[in-house]
Amino acid sequence: MSSQREALLRLLTDDDPETVRLVKEQLIVGGKNNIPELEILVGMDNEQVSVIARDILSQIEQNTADENFLQLCSKFEEHGDLEGAMWKLAAALTPGFSVETCENRLQMWARQLKRRISGAISSRERVMELSAYLAAELGFRGNTENYYSGKNSLIPTVLDTRLGIPITLAIVYIMIGRRADLEIDGINLPGHFIARHEDVYFDPFHKGR
User: Fold this and answer.
1) β-pairing, 185-189 with 192-197?
2) Could you report the per-residue pLDDT of 34-65, keeping only the tens digit for each?
3) ∠ CA 178-150-165 to the nearest 5 degrees?
């Protein structure tokens, strides 16, 4: 064991809570540079050190997510990566969520949708199949009972509850549609947000009507 790690172990197990607090703060400030050492501490037999190291890693992850989202906001362009932005927002506000889990779910739904629209001839037929699957079968709809909940703005929560606000529901349709090779655009109307596939406009908040 390195002398640096031994010193860190002594400080993290010190009887003085203030000493432990100050060491934790310094490790958090060090950010990503301290992650390799902290990951080693998490795997150690000393439960106290393992718990503290895990807590520090969680805080570093949260700080990094916050910083990434703030940087994105400062330079996001008109045709920027909207999906990537939604994942960064979720990481900043819902620590511990899994992008991979969300991606797998979206891919599964997209495969089902692609089969359903394979025989559709017109854009209207494709939209009808899209709405029948996402709204009628999967249950995506507007959260009219708790419209102003902040959770309606987080894509992972919308995927779990199938409830959202106009813009996040439109984004879900866009995400699934894109994976099924179905081009969908978001349309910002005065006081509402809907979607469009080619020449057909529809409303994900009201079950795709």
Assistant:
1) antiparallel
2) 777 777 777 777 788 788 887 777 777 777 77
3) 45
